[in-house]
Design goal:
The protein contains 4 helices and no strands. With 95 residues, the chain is mainly α. Helix 1 (3-16) crosses helix 2 and helix 1 (3-16) runs antiparallel to helix 4.
């Protein structure tokens, strides 16, 4: 398990237990949520305040954004491993 996956797990666990996010876990969650649109801003505001997210907000954060972040981190790690051993650009490996 990589650090990104562990951080995502901390966010999910705390939110499911109804606990507020604090410190580096809160900082990481706010990086994921980002800023810009009204929906993201509302989630960020609730996370900062330690308020409970709505069902849809929880779903988007935990089941969509966190999953996306975890998959991207795994893909990035796989590409880095392949580059270390010189496998990049060789296409799929048959098993």
């Amino acid at each position: 398990m990589n650090a990104t996956s562990a951080k995502c797990g901390h966010i999910k666990r705390r939110l499911r237990q109804g606990l507020p996010l604090t410190g580096k876990v809160l900082e990481f969650a706010l990086e994921i949520v980002g800023e810009g649109d009204e929906f993201s801003n509302e989630i960020a505001r609730k996370l900062k305040a330690g308020a409970k997210l709505g069902d849809y907000e929880s779903h988007i954060l935990m089941d969509v954004w966190l999953l996306h972040i975890r998959l991207a981190a795994q893909t990035r790690a796989r590409i880095e491993r392949e580059q270390e051993v010189g496998l990049e650009g060789r296409g799929p490996v048959e098993i």
